[in-house]
Design a protein that fits this description.
Elements lengths: L2 E6 L11 H21 L5 E2 L5 H9 L4 H9 L3 E2 L14 H15 L9 E3 L9 H7 L4 E4 L13 E5 L6 E6 L14 H19 L3 E6 L10 H11 L3 E4 L2 H9 L6 E3 L19 H27 L6 H12 L4 H5 L4 H33 L5 E6 L5 E11 L4 E2 L7 E8 L2 E8 L2 E7 L2 E12 L3 E6 L1 E2 L5 E2 L1 E3 L3 E3 L3 E6 L2 E6 L4 E12 L16 E2 L4 E6 L3 E13 L2 H5 L4 E13 L5 E9 L4 E8 L6 E6 L2 E6 L17 E3 L3 E5 L4 E6 L4 E5 L2 E8 L37 E12 L5 H11 L4 E4 L26 E3 L8 E7 L6 E8 L5 E3 L9 E4 L11 E3 L3 E8 L1
Parallel strand pairs: 1-8, 1-9, 2-3, 4-5, 5-7, 6-10, 14-20
Antiparallel strand pairs: 6-7, 11-18, 11-40, 12-17, 13-19, 14-17, 15-16, 18-41, 21-27, 22-23, 23-24, 24-25, 25-26, 25-31, 27-28, 28-29, 29-30, 30-39, 31-38, 32-33, 32-35, 34-37, 35-36, 36-39, 37-38, 42-43, 43-47, 44-46, 45-47
InterPro entries: Gal_mutarotase_sf_dom, Glyco_hydro/deAcase_b/a-brl, Glyco_hydro_38_cen, Glyco_hydro_38_cen_sf, Glyco_hydro_38_N, Glyco_hydro_38_N_sf, Glyco_hydro_57/38_cen_sf
Keywords: Glycosidase, Hydrolase, Metal-binding
Family: Belongs to the glycosyl hydrolase 38 family.
């Protein structure tokens, strides 16, 4: 006889094929019934899906129920948190996963205690650093379902899971039959004999324990009424012992088990449940915008808020959290994955649009207030450095001026890399103290200027320009379709992009675009029988050169089959137009590649293929605070074991590398989240468009359609919006070196690729280059800021993962230093804020330590006094 711990819960998708508004209407009824049932039955308990956002939505409707909710939590009847939303674990940045927990925990405290469990019941697999991330928010455990291969990765459903390093180890509870294992809990022989007892037998077979966990709940499922009475009846009928339990109680049982096995690695194996291995390219517009916002928040807004705090500008941390929430609502597993209906996708993108606007407004407010306090003239530029060490190199700044005859006295090598002329306007209203008048507004230039400058760590400085008689250097067209610097030479000839490195290595077909049919759905790509992949052809090339920069601009428009039916038999055609800009800076090791794709065809997959020239059987992809090595290839006879093909299409956080002892090639991406190694080539998916939410019997995923679309009474759902008709922009960079992969250098190149420039000019030509310029009013109170500010200047070998204001201490800020290598790294206390800091975890709990050492593949968090 096995003792079954039965936990009553609901899994609450905030949105899926239904919208968050739909879910709110459902919760208004259901959550009220949950509260009433718990109050009626003090012995009962209920888990509210481990995400706080759904409770916040409910309490916004029923603020008068806050006291009841607080009491139920205090009585350990209602369990909430710790997440803000049920996060995706592959396509969200590691810092976003941390923010999800940090904000969920921060906001949970208004209700009471939160569930200290990394509870992610439906996420589509887990990156290998989840133990490390969970340890940073104070958790020593996880409860999950998808991605595990029992019998191969681990033998038992209960085990210890290590991060890539040895510092983070958590207890893991797998739900091999999902979070609906014991749903409904009917005291009938059909339920007990047909569902409950077989599930207990299955789990006990693998766990080899005397007690097992049985989650009882499902999607949008209500509390089980009269739980104790039903359980008493079941105990009279079944072969096992059944008791009402909690996740916390069962976790304590697991922690006490002797000789738990240990696992290190990721859970991405589709054995007992699908993980949708090709979902990394579904609805790429959502993934691209999510990644763009992550970098904007991490590299611009959060460090700027620290600079603002040091400057005496008060902007609440709650506004920062509010902005993150808009993004995090779109990083739930279904939302960020993209397996949602069109109305939901529109909602996600609208929330991200709001987050983008909040970011811009916060930045605009900070930079303008500092500029106003400095009384900058129109020929002065305020340039910020959001890195935590001195910056020396090139920045691209915006300059607005009446002509191009300018120069920067301290920076003689400045040059124009892009220009726009705005023509004069007549009858423009000018408001003056003497009254209104109409004038002619003169024309002006908006220039993008590349300038080599040195900037203080986490601060800013003011630079100036003057009028002169000569034009500033600018890009000039060149007749030969090639670009080069000390590291690479790129040529375009007869439709082919070729590469030659400084060491003489040559690739005659270095970069190409490949288009093929996609017979899949929003969950998975699927090849189409009889389809032949087509190579995209560029037809025009323009080379631009200057002393600091060379640029190769390739364009083409190809006629391709319009839809799936047109792929196999010649039919209707549509246009696929692509502009590719390859750029080499004079000193840069990175070849940057910007693509603009105008997609006017349906149900296809577009990939960029890079011929690395590196012979290797494995690849190395980035993940939070480290890198993971994967093998390419698919097991033979996979149908015998797997619920979907374990295709070797894999996720990356920001880079993927092929390497051997002699050389390496790394591709850095912004929002491109899916790659495949094909011998010595890397294929990155740009688009995988589709017109269906879920389809049955696709090539990589036989059987039922994913989602609810093949349940009784359900219908297939068209997703015309997932065809992504229109323009999309992609950004990546390529590094090739005559040496093996090295983690620290790769991480630094990632930082270089994501380097950002924040600059501001007080100019009167256009008040809408920054949207709030004409609404942010000058105040009488002076900040007294200096023309140069430096808050923190760390050694350049410290890799900074985050810098943001403290959530809990008004006069302090947080930095997180990562170590993506296999060797622990010691941090010298004298380098950190004159020693005025505390070692904490991500939720700002004090950690006592005599010295600061970053373990392998890990990070440390410090709270510093301003």
């Amino acid at each position: 006889m096995v003792k079954a711990h039965i936990v009553n819960h609901t899994h609450w998708d905030r949105e899926w094929y239904f919208t968050s508004a739909d879910a709110l209407v459902l919760s208004e009824q259901l959550f009220t019934e949950v509260i009433e049932e718990l109050q009626k039955h003090p012995e009962a308990n209920f888990v509210l899906d481990g995400q706080l956002s759904i409770l916040d939505d409910y309490v916004a409707l029923y603020p008068e129920k806050l006291a009841d909710i607080q009491q139920l939590i205090a009585d350990k009847q209602l369990f909430i948190g710790p997440w803000f939303t049920q996060t995706d674990a592959f396509f969200a940045h590691g810092e976003s996963i941390l923010r999800n927990a940090m904000i969920g925990i921060f906001d949970s405290k208004k209700y009471g205690d939160y569930m200290k469990i990394g509870y992610l019941p439906d996420t589509f697999g887990f990156n290998a650093q989840m133990p490390t991330l969970l340890a940073h928010v104070g958790f020593d455990n996880i409860i999950f379902w998808r991605g595990i291969h029992l019998g191969e990765q681990v033998q038992s459903t209960y085990f210890k899971w290590n991060g890539l390093g040895d510092a983070a180890q958590i207890y893991a509870i797998n739900m091999p039959q999902g979070y609906g294992t014991g749903m409904l809990l009917e005291p009938t022989s059909a339920y007990v004999d047909g569902r409950l007892d077989p599930a207990i037998d299955f789990i006990a077979k693998y766990s080899q324990t005397k007690e097992v966990l049985i989650p009882s709940g499902n999607d949008q499922l209500n509390i089980i009424f009269n739980f104790a009475d039903k359980l008493a009846e079941i105990n009279k009928m079944g072969r096992h012992s059944y008791e009402l339990s909690t996740y916390q109680d069962f976790m304590e049982y697991v922690k006490a088990l002797p000789d738990l096995e240990t696992f290190r690695g990721e859970f991405r194996s589709p054995v007992l449940a699908r993980v949708h291995k090709t979902i990394g390219s579904s609805r790429m517009n959502i993934k691209l915008k999510s990644a763009e916002l992550e970098q904007k928040l991490l590299n611009r807004i959060e460090p700027l808020l620290v600079i603002a705090k040091a400057s005496g500008i008060h902007i609440s941390e709650r506004l920062l959290m509010h902005t993150w929430k808009k993004l995090l609502e779109g990083q739930a597993h279904d939302s960020l994955a993209g397996c949602v209906s069109d109305p939901v996708a529109e909602d996600i993108l609208h929330r991200m649009k709001e987050a983008d606007e909040l970011c811009d407004s916060i930045e605009n407010t900070i930079v303008k207030k500092i500029a106003d306090d400095l009384s900058l003239t129109s020929n002065e530029i305020l340039i910020f450095n959001t890195e935590l060490s001195t910056f020396a190199g090139y920045k691209e700044i915006q300059v607005v001026t009446k002509n191009k005859q300018i120069h920067f006295p301290e920076y003689p090598d400045a040059m124009i890399i892009h220009e726009q002329y705005i023509s004069a306007r007549d009858n423009v209203l000018e408001e003056t103290p003497a009254g209104n008048r109409f004038i002619e507004e003169p024309g002006y230039y908006v220039l993008q200027v590349k300038i080599k400058v040195e900037l203080p760590g986490l601060g800013y400085r003011v630079i100036s320009f003057e009028e002169t008689e000569l034009d500033l250097e600018s890009m000039m067209q060149h007749t030969t379709a090639e670009i080069s610097n000390a590291h690479y030479k790129i040529t375009f000839q007869n439709g082919t992009i070729a590469l030659e490195t400084a060491s003489g290595e040559k690739q005659t077909s270095f970069i190409r675009l490949e288009d093929s049919a996609n017979a899949g759905d929003t969950y998975d790509y699927s090849p189409l029988t009889g389809d032949i992949a087509r190579t995209f052809t560029f037809t025009k090339a323009i080379a631009e050169r200057s002393s600091k920069l060379e640029r190769l601009i390739l364009t083409g428009k190809n006629r391709l089959p319009f839809d799936l039916d047109d792929r196999v038999q010649a039919g209707k055609q549509g246009d696929l137009a692509v502009k590719m800009v390859l750029e080499l800076g004079v000193e840069s090791e990175l070849l940057t590649c910007e693509l603009e794709v105008d997609n006017q065809i349906k149900s296809h997959r577009l990939r960029i293929l890079v011929d690395t020239g590196v012979q290797t059987a494995t690849n190395i992809a980035s993940l939070p605070y480290g890198y993971i090595e994967r093998k390419s290839g698919v097991p033979a006879n996979w149908q015998e074991t797997y619920s979907e093909m374990p295709i070797d299409i894999e996720p990356l956080e920001q880079s993927v590398t092929l390497t051997n002892e002699m050389k390496s090639c790394t591709i850095f991406t912004r929002g491109i989240k899916e790659y495949q190694q094909i011998e010595d080539k890397l294929a990155l998916t740009l688009l995988a468009t589709t017109g269906q939410l879920g389809k049955p019997d696709i090539a990589y995923r036989p059987g039922r359609a994913s989602g609810d679309t093949t349940k009784k009474g359900h219908v297939l759902i068209a997703t015309e919006g997932a065809q992504l008709i229109g323009k999309h922009k992609f950004s990546l960079a390529i590094y090739l070196g005559a040496e093996a992969f090295e983690a620290t250098k790769t991480a630094r190149r990632t930082k270089e690729f994501n380097q950002t420039t924040i600059a501001y000019q007080s100019q009167a030509f256009n008040h809408f280059l920054h949207r709030l310029d004409n609404k942010i009013q000058k105040t009488e109170r002076r900040l007294g800021v200096a023309r140069t500010m430096e808050i923190l200047n760390l050694p350049k070998d410290y890799l900074i993962s985050a810098c943001y204001p403290s959530y809990y201490e008004a006069n302090k800020y947080i930095i997180r230093i990562e170590n993506p290598t296999s060797t622990p790294q010691k941090i010298e206390s004298a380098h950190i804020g004159n020693g005025s800091f505390e070692l904490i975890n991500a939720v700002e709990e004090i950690i006592l330590a005599k010295e600061i050492v970053i373990p392998a593949y890990d990070a440390v968090t410090l709270r510093i006094l301003l």
